[in-house]
């Protein structure tokens, strides 16, 4: 793989229910993300951080918290990811809260539409992120990006990608899910999302789950990974605000990343919700870097 990687920092927590994900990009840099990827022989360009509005820390308005701020940040993310893809680089979005996936995946989807490429999105997360203003308990937009991408959400966010919905639900595979609100569950079933929850991983094992999640890819497929760090078990990854016990272990997470790398199709990546305010000596950022290395093809074991 000779394509250059472009790191894009999005230091904000306007979509989250706790402060601190705004420090995520810098924590990943301190943990040596760029150097780790360069050591694999990859070209890496860190374009620095995007700018956007401060977090006003207000209660919800009409079911959404900080909607204008979330829209502004998502516009910036959309343009940066679009520009990276137009420049034939591989964008890696350093979040930031997960609401920014609307802009990131919106740009990837627009890129694929313009070039007639297929899209597969792997959503690695403890949560389905399929809330809407009608059912959200909090109004936090980081719980809504998948719904927005599938056409359910505020018009300002739905319109970002140029087409509504930005992605067809059948493009998406959710992996690691273990916390879904009741109303959210109905919506997820209603749109027919492909969800590999933790029980499925327990019963079938990560290998079979990944075989299923990656089935049907071909050389014309753009593979996007949206990695919410709360996907991981909190015992190994305490540095997120929304921990849910019972996530993938270190080896399960490594296998997940390695199997994605084996496809050779990774085209874009989000690394989201890393929250240094909850972390212990930056170990979650270091773990994220370790897993990202595997995602880009570092063989952990003795396999050639
Ligand atoms: Mn998420």
UniProtKB/TrEMBL annotation:
GO molecular function, one term: arginase activity
Cofactor: Mn(2+)
UniProt-listed InterPro entries: Arginase, Ureohydrolase, Ureohydrolase_dom_sf, Ureohydrolase_Mn_BS
Pfam families given in the database record: Arginase
Residues noted as binding Mn(2+) in the record, renumbered to the chain: 98, 125, 127, 129, 228, 230
GO cellular component: cytoplasm
Entry note: cofactor: Binds 2 manganese ions per subunit.
Enzyme's top EC category: hydrolase
Pathway listed: Nitrogen metabolism; urea cycle; L-ornithine and urea from L-arginine: step 1/1
Entry-linked SUPFAM superfamilies: Arginase/deacetylase
Keyword Metal-binding: yes
The EC number(s) this enzyme carries: 3.5.3.1
Single GO biological process annotation from the record: urea cycle
Catalytic activity: L-arginine + H2O = urea + L-ornithine
Record keywords: Arginine metabolism, Hydrolase, Manganese, Metal-binding
Similarity comment: family membership: Belongs to the arginase family.
PANTHER family assigned to the protein according to its UniProt record, in alphabetical order: ARGINASE
Annotated protein name in UniProt: Arginase
């Amino acid at each position: 793989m000779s394509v250059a990687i472009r790191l894009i920092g999005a230091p904000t927590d306007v979509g989250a229910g706790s402060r601190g994900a705004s420090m995520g990009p810098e924590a990943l840099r301190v943990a040596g993300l760029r150097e780790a990827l360069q050591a694999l022989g990859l070209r890496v360009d860190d374009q620095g951080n995007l700018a956007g509005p401060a977090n006003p820390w207000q209660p919800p308005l009409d079911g959404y918290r900080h909607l204008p701020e979330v829209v502004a940040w998502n516009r910036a993310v959309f343009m940066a990811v679009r520009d990276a893809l137009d420049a034939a680089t591989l964008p890696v979005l350093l979040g930031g809260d997960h609401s920014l996936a609307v802009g990131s995946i919106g740009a990837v989807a627009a890129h694929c539409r313009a070039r007639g490429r297929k899209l597969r999105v792997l959503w690695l997360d403890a949560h389905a992120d399929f809330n809407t203003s009608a059912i959200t308990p909090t109004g936090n937009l980081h719980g809504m990006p998948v719904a927005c991408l599938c056409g359910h959400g505020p018009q300002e966010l739905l319109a970002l990608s140029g087409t509504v919905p930005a992605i067809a639900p059948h493009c998406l595979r959710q992996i690691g899910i273990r916390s879904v609100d009741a109303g959210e569950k109905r919506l997820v079933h209603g749109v027919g999302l492909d969800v590999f929850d933790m029980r499925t991983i327990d019963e079938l094992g990560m290998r079979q789950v990944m075989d299923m999640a990656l089935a049907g890819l071909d050389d014309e497929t753009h593979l996007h990974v949206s990695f919410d760090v709360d996907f991981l078990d909190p015992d190994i990854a305490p540095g997120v605000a929304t921990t849910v016990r019972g996530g993938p272990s270190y080896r399960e997470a490594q296998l997940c990343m390695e199997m994605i790398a084996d496809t050779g199709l990774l085209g874009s990546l989000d690394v989201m919700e890393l929250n240094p305010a909850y972390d212990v000596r930056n170990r979650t950022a270091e773990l994220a870097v370790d897993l990202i290395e595997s995602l880009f093809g570092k063989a952990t074991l003795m396999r050639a």
